Amino acid sequence: MLGRLHATLVDWFAREARDLPWRAAGRTPWGVLVSEVMLQQTPVARVLPVWREWMERWPHPADLAAEPAGEAVRAWGRLGYPRRALRLHAAATVITSEHGGELPDTEEGLLALPGVGSYTAAAVASFAFGRRATVVDTNIRRVHARLVGGEALPAPTLTAAEQRRATVLLPADRAQSVAWNAATMELGAIVCTARSPRCAECPVSDACAWLAAGEPPPTYTPRGQAWHGTDRQVRGAIMAVLRAAQHPLQRDLLEPRGPEDSARAMPGSAGSTRSAPCPTQYSVEGTGPVGEALARLHALRTGPEQLERALAGLLADGLAVEVEGSLQLP
Fold first, then answer.
1. Dihedrals phi, psi of 250, to nearest 5 degrees
2. Are 225 and 281 in contact (CB under 8 A)?
3. For residue range 3-21, what is the model confidence (pLDDT) as tens digits?
4. 327 φ, ψ (degrees, to nearest 5)
5. Helix 160-169 with 138-147: angle, nearest 10 deg
6. Of 237, 241, 206, 261, nearest in space to 327 by CA
7. DSSP 3-state assignment of 250?
8. CA quadruple 318, 324, 328, 330: dihedral sign
9. Is the distance from CB of 166 to CB of 149 less than 8 angstroms?
10. Distances in Å between the alpha carbon of 237 and those of 27, 74, 107, 227?
11. How far is residue 198 CA from its own chain's centroid?
């Protein structure tokens, strides 16, 4: 039974898999690592253009390691959770200095890299090096929960029982285990989705315990993360300002201003009272990327306590640094 399940799903993947660059024949282990980190909690459509830009600019770990960590954060753009950019930079630095610029090819070696957890280590070992590794992401958990457990959704967080089940389901053959990991992940991403599963298109629907049980509803209601008005939104707006700024930014410019301050122009633009631009100063809402990013931040009407809290979090996380009252990327 399990052998037929493996063969059916792997054959389906061979026919239906999306054409993604980190799956291409010419992929590199570094490209796979970058994709796995970027894809955490982020859809493929958003990751694709940023991944391509990264790989063109930094095709090898040494290329990224040679630049300041702040450049990784700047290039991360609006993917969200920018600490992932810092982790990739830290990993690239260690890969370059301790591994001759080549990724370790085992789970154990990958786990020793900064910022690489158990999922990422298993995924890179499997997809980059063809190792037999138990890969368990959100999509795979959902497929296992429905296909084998008869449940609409997996538990809110990964359990030891789920990890054991995934290990039991993994094919013994190394090559087939790699294909099984990729196929199960793909099925969860495009067919066995969380909200609207397309069961009629599922190649293993006849073996699905959830369908056989009559599609019982979830035992809990997944709660999405709030955004508007949260510290996360404010942090994101501050990061947009810092990414746009090519020079240190005066801290007080982040604070909401009155109409008389908003009327100031960018240094050197029409209406400016300065004869020459000062690299450490920007106006509140002038022209250009920095002024536009500041305007979006100020439009949030963030109170001073929340603004300070969000900024303190960015400084503590190493996503921003403060030098003599001015802020910049690390």
1. -60, 130
2. no
3. 999 999 999 999 999 999 9
4. -110, 150
5. 80
6. 241
7. strand
8. negative
9. no
10. 34, 13, 36, 12
11. 26
Q: Which of 16, 36, 102, 292 is catalytic?
A: 36
Distance of alpha carbon 282 from alpha carbon 165, whole angstroms: 56
* Annotation says 186 is catalytic: no
DSSP sequence for 264-330:
PPPTTSTT---SS--TT---SS-SHHHHHHHHHHHHT---HHHHHHHHHHHHHTTS-EEETTEEE--
pLDDT per residue over 104-156, tens digit each? 999 999 999 999 999 999 999 999 999 999 999 999 999 999 999 999 999 99
Contact 273, 261 (CB under 8 A): no
Token pair, residue 143, equals: 């497929």
Query: DSSP per residue over 117-171, as a string?
Result: -HHHHHHHHHHHH--------HHHHHHHHHHTT--SS--SS--HHHHHHHHHHS-
Q: Which amino acid is at 268?
A: G
Q: What's the distance, CA 180 to chain centroid?
A: 23
* Main-chain phi, psi angles of 96, to 5 degrees: -70, -45
Radius of gyration over every alpha carbon of the chain, rounded to an integer in angstroms:
23
Q: Which residue bears the tokens 């404010």?
A: 234
Q: Give Cβ neighbours of residue 66 (< 8 Å, ≥ 6 apart).
A: none
DSSP assigned state of 82: T
